[in-house]
Amino acid sequence: MEMHSYVTGLTDGEGCFSVSFSKRKKMVLGVEVRPSFSVSQHKRNRELILSLQKFFGCGGGRFSRADQNYKYEVRSLSDILAKIIPHFDTWPLKTSKVNDYQAFRRICLLMKQNRHVQPAGLRQIIHLASSMNAAGKRKYSPQDLLRMANKMKV
Amino acid sequence: MEMHSYVTGLTDGEGCFSVSFSKRKKMVLGVEVRPSFSVSQHKRNRELILSLQKFFGCGGGRFSRADQNYKYEVRSLSDILAKIIPHFDTWPLKTSKVNDYQAFRRICLLMKQNRHVQPAGLRQIIHLASSMNAAGKRKYSPQDLLRMANKMKV
Lengths: 154, 154
Fold this sequence. Notes:
The first copy, chain A, is α+β, with helices and mostly antiparallel strands.
């Protein structure tokens, strides 16, 4: 088995690239940007989740009691930049999930340049994120986020 | 990309091995056994479904209006034996879906030996199938099927 290709196939099926936002007074613009790459599996596939942690050399597995799922997740920006993005650039996704990935990738590169703590960069990130995971529900609409970000002095 | 490994990863995510039964007076035991391998995707990934048809050299894609999904499906026993089973024997699944696959595989091999038109073979197939896809719903319970099969004269 060629594991890189297997992992891309599994991710096309069960993976998720997401960027969430939360209100944080401590942050320069009052909004925290949190990218996350995850793969979910029923708890009976805990071994596979642990093997992803080993494969990528980062991230962790955790159990969600709510849906009885194990989730492999990487939230660290430096791990995402060093390990997740190089993988999916070299072994690209084949489903429309590639569009989520491309937006996710751009957001992470903007964060690397500290653009998320500048109003124009944060606005760009909010716009990119609003195109992702169309079916999911969000706590804040892009309009809410822009309002939150704009209220803060820089 | 190594396509064999990719396809196994995608199948661990989105594939389904199933065996369904239907009442058919024409069949020797009054019960038809229908194995099926399928991979479902949102209609936006129609291209990927078509590429699976090319990859395996069998099966077909069809659109389900109900859930707006494209489904790649192989129902032909000879194609399953010649193309699907050799693939998953060589590039094995890593999730618990492998258990469904093993039952599916045994059923297809029994059918190859025409065991599904003999009462003992059909009973064995019904038992194997009852262990598969625990979450799915079935038109007939194993008990219903055994009753249907036993009623028929051979």
